[in-house]
Amino acid sequence: MKVGQTIYLDHQATTPVDRRVAAAMAPYYSESFGNPHSSDHILGWQSGHAVEAAAVGVARLIGADPDEIIFTSGATESNNMALLGLGHRAAGLTRRRILVSAIEHRCVFAAARELERRHAFTIQQIPVDRHGLVDLSALDAMLGEDVLAVSVLAVNNEVGTIQDTAAIAAHVHPHGALFHCDAAQAPLAMTMSSLAEHADMVSLSGHKMYGPKGVGAIFIARALQSRIEPLIYGGGQQNGLRSGTLPVPLCVGLGAAAELLCAEGVDDSRAELRRRRDAFVHRLKGLAWPISLVGVQAEARHPANASICFHGFSAHAILGALQPRLAASTGAACTTGTPEPSHVLRAMGLSGDDAESTIRFSLGFGTTDDDIERAVDLIEEALARLEKTRLACSA
To answer: I want to staple 355 with a disulfide (CB 3.0 to 4.6 A). Which of 27, 79, 267, 341 is the partner?
Structure first.
């Protein structure tokens, strides 16, 4: 898709709000604007019913029940609620270890480190193979009766690796440990209708699935909810797990986005994404410079994800040369303002140089064949200019 004159290939960073989602949200800003927790009048009832319907949509997406859905501000808060909420209540118990995959989102690592700091939990990283898949034999060796929880992304945000969540759960649960799954990237990548059968907690984010920014959700299995310490206290809304007045338009938007991803034809849309992604990668491999696709091949990869290593080039330099005509992202994380090689790519075995040469392109449902053709032409032009500059500097 184009935003003005910019070809947008950064849908794993954020998606535009689907027009149908925006239409569903609109009435709850200025017409049906009642507080959803006002139980004494019709405007409150209308808003409350809208939130309940949104919870039904989100629950349907992952195969849960509506009372197991807690609305949050996004996946970062959901991930914090899962780990900190569980850890605070379990601080005096004998299960003192938490396992997280080596390619988790930064917020999972940050929450885990906070448990380590506050309550002396031991945090251990589960290794992954060169494709970004969790090493199940290593996980088996790490599991034991002292493990409280295991946290693994359903779909990696940088390289698009899709984990076998059912297999991971089958390894984790016999040890009495809980399985938390950050599924922020999963809705566009895979059918999720059985995810709640395998995971005890699942995190979601609205703006990764054609919904609005500022809203997300966490599925917490009903039997587990009493073991979660709230992060926000107040009026006891949402089963006492997250107090505060719910943002009705945002909740409605998340529910509407979830419903769209449950609709007939979504698998066909994913197949089109995969076809265009493969055509994009094929054309890039035909350029005059060596490139490689980072991560897993075929079905175990997000259909929109193309994580490309441009050997010998700086990813930041390429993206700079492409501005303002093409939008994509590097795999590098920037924490305190100093760029550093992606922890995901390093965990998968890439060298520092290759990690710093890797760009994540992520297509969307609105990406066209023409967008792909033009994007490759722009990348070819950028690489040619950068090589010319490099040769001139070395002369």
So the answer is: 341
**Residue 115 and residue 134: Cα distance in Å, rounded?**
23
CA atoms within 13 A on the CB side of 294: 30
Strands 178-182 and 147-151, sheet pairing: parallel
- Tokens for 58? 């989100």
Calculate the dihedral angle through the C-alpha atoms of 201, 12, 352, 347, rounding to the nearest 10 degrees: 20
Peptide bond into 339 cis (omega under 30): no
**Which residues fall within 8 angstroms of residue 179, CB to CB, at 6 or more apart?**
149, 150, 151, 152, 165, 168, 169, 172, 173, 198, 199, 200, 201
- Residues identified as active-site: 334
What CA–CA distance (Å, rounded) separates 262 from 36? 25
- Tell me the average pLDDT of the chain: 95
Q: Tell me which residue has tokens 């107090």.
A: 243
The pair of structure tokens assigned to 48 is: 């409350």
pTM strictly above 0.90: yes
Q: In the chain, helix, strand, coil percent, each to 5?
A: 45, 15, 40
| Domain at 2-16+265-394, CATH homologous superfamily | Aspartate Aminotransferase, domain 1 (3.90.1150.10)
The tens digit of pLDDT for each residue in 72-122 reads 999 999 999 999 999 999 988 899 999 999 999 999 999 999 999 999 999
Domains of the chain: which residue ranges? Answer: 2-16+265-394, 19-262
CA distance 191 to 256: 17
pLDDT, tens digit (0-9, with 9 covering 90-100), for 234-291: 999 999 999 999 999 999 999 999 999 999 999 999 999 999 999 999 999 999 999 9
Look-up of token digits 């349907």: 60
Asked if residues 6 and 378 have their Cβ atoms less than 8 Å apart, the reply is: no
Strand partners for 23:
none
Its CATH architecture, for the domain 19-262, is 3-Layer(aba) Sandwich (3.40)
Secondary structure of residue 294 in the 3-state scheme: coil
Is residue 101 within 8 Å of residue 134, measured between CB atoms? yes
